[in-house]
Amino acid sequence: MMPFTEYFKQGCKPNQTGSIGLEVEHFLISRNDGRPMPYDGENGIGQLLEFLRKDFPHAYYEQDLLIALESEDVLITLEPGCQLEISLRCMNNLQEMMEIYLKTVSSILAYIHPRGYDLIYSGGLPTIGQEDVVLIDKERYRLMAQYFKNVSTRGLEMMKATAAVHVSVDYTDENDFIRKYRMANILHPLLAFLSSHTPVYAGKKNEDVLLRDSIWSHTDPARCGILPSLFEENFGFDAYARFLEQVPLIVMNDHENFIDVKDQTCGQVAETYGYGKTEIAHYLSMLFLDVRLKQFIEIRSADSMPPIYTQAYCALVKGLFYQQENIETYSSLTHSIETILQAKEALRKDCYDAIVYGKPVQNLLKEMIFDAKKGLTEKEKSYLLPLEELVNTKSLIPNLSIEETYQKAILMHPMESKESALRITEAIQKSELNLGGNMYTRTLHIPKIFTQEDKQRFEKIVNTTYSIFTKVIQAYKTDVQIRKLFGFSRELEELILCEPAYTSPIPICRVDIFYNEQTKDFHFCEFNTDGTSAMNENKRLNDFLAFNNIFQRDPEDYEIPELVQSWADAFIQTMKEDPKVCEKARIGICDFLENAYYTELYVFEDVFKQKGYDCEVVDIRDLDYKDGKLYSQKTGKVIDVIYRRAVTRDVMDHYEQVQPFIQAYLHHDVCCIGAFQTQLVHHKQITQVLMNPVMQKYFTPDEVSFIEKHCPITYDLTQDVVEKIQDKDHWIIKPKDSYASKGVWAGIDLHQNQWNQVVSQHLDANYIVQKYITPYKTKNIDLVNFDELKDYSNMSGLYVYNGHFAGVYSRCSDGGIISTQYNEKTIPTLFLR
Fold first, then answer.
1. 3-class secondary structure, 64
2. What pLDDT does 740 receive?
3. Residue among 723, 732, 777 at smallest CA distance from 750
4. CA quadruple 370, 409, 417, 24: dihedral positive or negative?
5. Which residues of 432-559 form beta strands (DSSP E)?
6. CA quadruple 333, 339, 341, 347: dihedral sign
7. pLDDT tens-digit profile of 310-340?
């Protein structure tokens, strides 16, 4: 008996467990130039492996280079072009396998993301050509590269510019091997097609749906493709062994170095080096057939693809290859290598219109998925959903957005996701986000996830908008014509004209916009200055991502802006500009407490105390002003600095009751962070003012263009505009000076009679009517109450601290208005690193 044959027999596993082996190759790509991460250098793969080494008991070196790490479950190795391969031990539990895989990926991301690299799933290198990829400096790869230059046209592409998913299955005996091996070869074109994931290759759109297979087909006919004896009567372990014996080996490890063995075959080299376990492993690794035999069957069909598809692919293979009826069916689809080759060409040429093995390929793929379910548990069947969707829609694996990845993961893990959502809601109800009486923050399971491009866009929006706001404030103070545009009372005008003792015209504001995540265009909704809130709500929802089962798969992928501590720091920086503020200044957080988001006020009280400042929350009516100082009636202590959360409308409605505060403010005896000049921006009439030619003479042409493009058309709600706004679905009614969306009506949410009634009731009553902006919609899911994804409208609130973009407040609604009163949901906001 040949040594290889005996080795293969030793791989027989009579007691089948349905175990799957998994290997996933990845590109680590620089965000700056698209080049793969090199081995050498301070931020190279060598240092990545050193970073990971603490979690891996075994490290392997070659020519003094760290090239592999191994633990009980995971083996990390490198491919010639620095592709990173993660291999997992064979296991039956697909969920456990993916959890181990994703945990390993998370550790890798923690290292590469801060260094400007991304982990990319693709069958071919998307960014640059193989000629620009530097091989790892290993003698083995140098000798292989030289060999493939001489025998093939695409061997170097194979080495440096491809990445795959290999899935392995066991065999019980030689007959089981024969059937499964033939089946794997027959299904290879279909599996390669279904897992095709190379939309871009070498910087260009890829038109070859079986790109990796094409590259392998032009690598080396002596070792690639289909075993010639596949359908011969005497095919088995011996036939595979005989083929292996005659393959040119290229290189051999002589236990110290890799050496060039010229044109010697595997059998000839084995006569010198023998058939030890290490030697056999090397011999087998130099054979690159579509389906490879070791002591298991390695199916090498799939492109590197996102984890949700990798898991689906593993379920497909498991369901097909461990079910006897399926083995009988699919191992007999053809008995001809030529037919397999024809299947490949048909798929390349016609994709989903191809006829494969006598059937339309869509029908055949549907049958494969249906049949796979016969060999799977109920939970494992759910993993097939992403592949079912591809086949049903005649699609290839897309470049998924993160939100789409979340959606598919939720559908694949429904019970786990629902339990996760319930834990998040329970955490909210036990936190300060629960105000009692069923008043607590509602959320959805998919966070709002923006890119770094979005972040840069937000920064530009903030910079331009803040410049415009600053000019409005300056103009109001110097130009009586501008003051007439607002028409404020004499008392409010006096407060606005009172100059603060710090330079920031608006220390804090939130610019609410309707942002189209595809086009990157936007429209303003409203501007919040007085009483800007929800920073802590944002923070706590981010904290509760610890319970989100999907987020926890790769938390290192995201940058999460912090809005509480950063606002406290901006506040302190601003107050220190006031020369009257002493080192031990006392801070009063003031609001009309019956209207306040009071739990957040106490959060900030604690934050300021942690930063070394005596601080108290006090109702703005409970202050005394005497001898040039402002006192808290609650504690009797002096208040040097006011954090004004009381909105201007409430202050003016209680003007006589808040006179101690008003007088201290007008006499500059208290530093008020949130000077009344911010009301110019907060007031809903600001949109009309910005459009007015009297105001626009203060702006640059670019600023005027910016305003006209992004501000909705706005009218005073008077009899003159009634005819213009009859098409209710295009208009929304708002009070000129309110907050929390009080008194807001969107025509899209009303019947025509209701709309007419609302218009009639609010004519000439200090209301405006604005062009209704249709919000950008995304799919999300309220798993606490429902099991289906649905469309939600989105609003993005851009926080601005002292003129600088600080973060985003993300809200959603399934109605026309996004507000707590109208089924609003608040979700965490993340930025992809």
1. coil
2. 44
3. 732
4. positive
5. 448-450, 508-515, 522-528, 558-559
6. negative
7. 999 999 999 999 999 999 999 999 999 999 9
